[in-house]
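README, section 4: Worked example with a bound small molecule

Sections 1 through 3 covered apo chains. Here we extend the same pipeline to holo records, where the ligand is supplied as SMILES alongside the sequence. The molecule in this example is zinc ion. Nothing else about the input changes; the structure line simply encodes the ligand pose together with the chain.
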Amino acid sequence: MKGIGHWRGNRLTAAASLLLGAMIGLLSVSAFRGMWEPDPVFPSPWLTRKAMLADYHPALKNTPGDTEVFVFEGGEPGGSLLVTGGVHANEAAGFMAALLLVENLKVEKGKVVVIPRANASAFTHSEPQEGSPQRYGIEVPGGVRSFRLGARLTNPVHQWPDPSLFRTPAGQIVAGAEARNLNRCFPGRPRGSLTEQVAWGILEVIRQEGIGLGIDLHESSPEYPVINAIVFHEKAAEMAAVAQMDLQFEGLDFRLEASPRNLRGLSHREWGDHGGIRALLLETPNPVQGRLKGRPTPELVVTGRDPFYLKAAGLGRLFIPYDTAGAPLSWRVARHLAAVEAILASLEEVEPDLAVAWSGLPEWRAVVEQGVGAFLRPGTGGGPRTDGGGGVAGQAGGGARRPPQPGRP
Ligand SMILES: [Zn+2]
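The generated complex, written as structure tokens:
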């Protein structure tokens, strides 16, 4: 009897193996390149113009740092607001809240500029060594839309190698990998690294669009102290305080955090210092990016329900209330939306000349109750995409829909 060791191939088997290898290679290339395609965005019919970041900083043209800039202008003159999501592409609620604006917004007074994928390169890869899902699904009317979950930093394929230590454009020395952290690269450098150029491009948007108020949407780990928070530049202190009180009346607890003057390179710090605007950063709690989580699944992105976080909450280790309902994406998006609305209301109170008014957006409670997907465009529709290890979680609330509770909306 012949064993496998005695098996001899011939030209035909050699050709077949080569062909098989080539096919596997081609399939991997297309799957890999598929990660570089941005998910489609379907702006509301009241969009005034869609630009690219390269229109403000031309060096970004045809680079992976270029990204869409959506501009909405109202009939009445007023102030101008910039909202960014996706400065950290693994913080799904920041991106999703910005997307909700783009797909629903109608500006009545002033101007609103939204950049949902501020660090576009960070959306083209996943958090390394975390087993992170590449995609998650949101039920929308008539189907499921699939979204990429990106990473905190710029893709190393696009910016490499990291220095051992990084001197930020604002002059602080930090760990080398932070060279790819957009939220350490403000105010950017016009001829710097890709991440620094993206930061510069966003400052150019602030300058060229005459922005007066900037809000940067983030998330953080439930065990991180700056959470459920409004972090404010001192120029926006009064506005932030008024907004926090309004939110408290709505049953939404937000901490107020003054931005430390010596922590440099962050959006709100440098937008305020270099862009001269009022600037704030919002944080919601995101279990999938925390250190205590169990298996990171597409469902965890959407439901925010994790047994290990539940245990940590029982031991008093978290900075947020956390129960069996988890921290659903819809609830986190609703918090961002409520906070942005409250900040706009306080702008109207504090600086009426700079006010911005809009319509078309759902009330934050409706986002909690019906799920964020109810307010997204059906898009291309179609069934769930299961490529790239992603999957589809249930309705945006993950079955955890419930009436808002004080301090725990
Ligand atoms: Zn962040």
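What to look for in the output: Residues 48-389 form a domain with the Aminopeptidase fold (CATH 3.40.630). Residues 75 and 108 are 6 Å apart (CA to CA).

Section 5 describes how to batch many such records.
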